[in-house]
Recover the amino acids of this structure.
């Protein structure tokens, strides 16, 4: 299922071509989704601590992904953040099944650690929170690549992770609550639009 | 393929395909007393197990994005009713250079009626005779008056909500009451009134009152997932069950039709099919064959059914099988509305589609392009899903508390618009058998040719201008950018993408230029009928399913009469 045989060189080369593109669609029978659901459930139960055991990422990579997810959608006074919402598990599961994701995210993590090592002499996780914020502020905006083209790989990586983090967060219980979505239920009559507040 | 099994049984009719056209034929023919063998290329459907109604995204490990995220942002995400897909493993099709045709196929009992948008619009009287008006394309061999009684019957039986409006381009039908409009629909309606654009309650095959033992809609907004209470129309839940109840229907699933076999007398006498489970070839013998495998699949089967009597394929003496292929013209755009940001949280789900729409309103004036289009629109606080904030992420970037705040603020504040217009058939758009490729069942596959012309580009341009006018008139900001050049000017979509591909075995008064007569009966083979979208002569700005159902009902009654007279 996974392709850990990829070299750092492969990953960086592909990353330079841009993050996961393509949409090779396959028919997904309902049974397959159910199977995967049970699979994740079983694996969680089987691991000694009941904690999620990453399928694709190494412990270090997974810890970095979790920190980045939480930075993208943090806990705030409205509710929990992306880590609590299970976004890292979701991203790890998809990545374990998709070679494009493996290149984009695996390569991006290598790039980030390389960037932090060059700049701060430490891996991203070992940086101070100020240093982490400085690094993220650089890769969170496309315009920064205009001044410094060497950032473009990091920017592509972060843009992709940002979307996946939003996916993971806003499809979770706490994410749905954060948006105050109301519905997915049976109602006798559709109530229509409540009064529109004056602009 | 070790052996060829011959079924000793002779059925009155073999129907190929269990979607709108095939399901309707199976119902009418069995109720009329005939024995029917119904072949479906996909598996059976089990709504209790297969449908994802009321499922939350977090209840699926892939949250709807599919294995490897490969269904992310796609129509056929994990929530959709099963086995509708743009790509089917082992069953490819090909495209001529530059054609880039997209072909959505459903391999499941009920076919694409499990997946369609339930938009149920009648063709207008003028749509059957538009050649007379503008000299383009061809006229139908039948009129609106011929089909109107069957539209009445179909709507009465399947259930369609709507309102009587008296609009010449969008005839009224037999309607159940419509649901109340959503906020986005009220905002758009107001803007349309200002601009002189018609905006009326939509017409969807969703029942708002109980009908024939089916419960009314419970407004969860999830029609596309399949409805366990069958409150929307699908062939699998509304047509196949009554056919089953007659005791005269034999449903054979995982049966991929390969050839319609013709006897020495030139009549269809059997259908050869691959039993997918055992990979063996089997045969159904029948007095009459009704082909309804979906427009392109039906033309593929005809073209592959070659014999000394029919060297160019069955029922193809005119050479028009596969020709006159069209899809609807589609272009989309969206706008952002501050007013929607201010709405308090509320249940916005409603039915699984729009409650209002814009029928073609410029039928009374000269336009830059022939024919017309209607507008579908939607937006607001529907259930969040993967990809929902891609646009915001692209536009605003950043991260952290501010990104989270913006997601919260902008949720439900967009309205998207989709034009659906009429394409004029052209000589560069057709399907044929690819001589170099077969599928995993050994059946030669289709190769598509597709070209839009200026007629369609100008229509897409008009759509974009209209969307912008509506959004701006409603106080919103139009966000979609399209350009007038490139392969897809004015945002026109790839051919096939609207999933209204029809016309590949069209009906006509002249056997030299058409495949079928006005009763969907092949000119060349009297005991062969084609009752799916292949029979359509034009594809006006109306979604084709309601018309396919009406044509199939009408053809099936004709078939029953002919069978009684001993003509088949």
């Amino acid at each position: 299922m996974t392709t850990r045989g990829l070299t750092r060189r492969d990953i960086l080369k592909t990353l330079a071509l841009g993050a996961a593109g393509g949409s090779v669609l396959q028919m997904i029978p309902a049974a397959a989704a159910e199977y995967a659901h049970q699979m994740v459930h079983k694996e969680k139960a089987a691991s000694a601590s009941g904690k999620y055991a990453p399928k694709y990422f190494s412990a270090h990579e997974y810890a970095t992904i979790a920190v980045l997810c939480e930075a993208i959608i943090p806990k705030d006074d409205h509710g929990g953040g992306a880590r609590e919402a299970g976004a890292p598990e979701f991203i790890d599961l998809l990545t374990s099944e998709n070679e494009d994701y493996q290149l984009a995210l695996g390569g991006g993590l290598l790039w980030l650690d390389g960037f932090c090592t060059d700049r701060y002499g430490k891996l991203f996780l070992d940086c101070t929170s100020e240093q982490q914020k400085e690094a993220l502020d650089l890769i969170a905006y496309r315009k920064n690549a205009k001044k410094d083209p060497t950032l473009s790989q990091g920017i592509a990586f972060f843009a992709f992770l940002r979307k996946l983090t939003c996916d993971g967060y806003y499809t979770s219980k706490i994410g749905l609550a954060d948006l105050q979505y109301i519905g997915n239920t049976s109602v006798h009559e559709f109530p229509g639009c409540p009064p529109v507040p004056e602009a | 393929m070790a052996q060829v099994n011959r079924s000793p049984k002779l059925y009155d009719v073999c129907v190929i395909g269990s979607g709108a056209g095939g399901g309707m034929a199976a119902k009418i023919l069995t109720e009329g007393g005939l024995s029917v063998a119904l072949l479906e290329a996909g598996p059976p459907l089990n709504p209790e197990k297969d449908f994802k109604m009321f499922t939350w995204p977090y209840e699926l490990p892939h949250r709807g994005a599919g294995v490897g995220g490969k269904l992310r942002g796609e129509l056929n995400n994990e929530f959709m009713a099963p086995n509708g897909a743009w790509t089917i493993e082992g069953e490819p099709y090909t495209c001529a250079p530059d054609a880039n045709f997209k072909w959505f196929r459903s391999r499941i009992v009920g076919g694409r009626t499990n997946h369609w948008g339930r938009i149920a619009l009648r063709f207008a009287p003028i749509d059957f005779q538009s050649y007379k008006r503008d000299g383009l394309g061809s006229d139908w061999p039948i009129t609106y008056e011929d089909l109107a009684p069957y539209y009445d019957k179909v709507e009465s039986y399947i259930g369609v909500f709507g309102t009587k409006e008296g609009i010449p381009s969008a005839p009224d039908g037999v309607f159940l009451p419509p649901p109340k409009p959503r906020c986005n629909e009220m905002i758009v309606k107001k803007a349309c009134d200002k601009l002189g654009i018609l905006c009326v309650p939509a017409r969807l095959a969703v029942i708002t009152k109980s009908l024939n033992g089916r419960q009314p809609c419970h407004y969860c907004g999830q029609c596309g997932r399949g409805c366990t209470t069958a409150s929307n129309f699908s062939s699998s839940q509304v047509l196949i069950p009554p056919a089953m109840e007659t005791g005269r229907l034999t449903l054979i699933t995982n049966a991929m039709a390969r050839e319609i076999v013709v006897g020495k007398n030139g009549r269809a006498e059997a259908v050869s099919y691959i039993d997918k489970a055992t990979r063996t070839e089997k045969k159904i013998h029948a007095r009459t064959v009704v082909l309804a495998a979906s427009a392109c699949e039906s033309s593929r089967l005809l073209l592959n059914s070659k014999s000394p009597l029919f060297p160019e394929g069955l029922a193809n003496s005119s050479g028009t099988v596969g020709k006159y292929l069209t899809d609807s013209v589609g272009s989309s755009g969206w706008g952002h509305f501050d007013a929607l940001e201010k709405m308090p949280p509320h249940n916005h789900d409603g039915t699984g589609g729009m409650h209002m729409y814009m029928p073609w309103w410029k039928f009374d004036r000269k336009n830059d392009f022939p024919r017309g289009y209607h507008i579908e629109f939607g937006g607001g606080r529907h259930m969040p899903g993967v990809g929902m904030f891609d646009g915001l992420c692209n536009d605003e970037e950043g991260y952290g508390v501010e990104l989270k705040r913006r997601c919260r603020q902008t949720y439900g504040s967009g309205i998207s618009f989709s034009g659906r217009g009429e394409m004029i058939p052209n000589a560069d758009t057709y399907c044929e058998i690819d001589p170099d490729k077969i599928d995993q069942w050994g059946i030669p596959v289709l190769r598509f040719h597709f070209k839009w012309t200026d007629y369609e580009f100008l229509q897409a341009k008009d759509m974009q201008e209209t969307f912008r006018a509506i959004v701006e008139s409603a106080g919103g900001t139009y966000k979609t950018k399209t350009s007038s050049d490139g392969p897809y000017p004015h945002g026109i979509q790839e051919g096939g993408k609207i999933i209204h591909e029809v016309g590949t075995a069209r009906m006509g008064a002249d056997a030299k230029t058409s495949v079928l007569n006005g009763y969907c009966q092949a000119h060349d083979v009297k005991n062969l009928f084609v009752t799916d979208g292949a029979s359509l002569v034009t594809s006006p700005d109306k979604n084709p399913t309601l018309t396919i159902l009406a044509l199939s009902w009408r053809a099936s009654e004709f078939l029953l009469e002919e069978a009684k007279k001993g003509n088949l």
Observations:
- Chain B has a mean pLDDT of 97.
- Residues 545-565 of chain B form the longest helix (21 residues).
- Chain B touches chain A through 81 residues (CB under 8 Å).
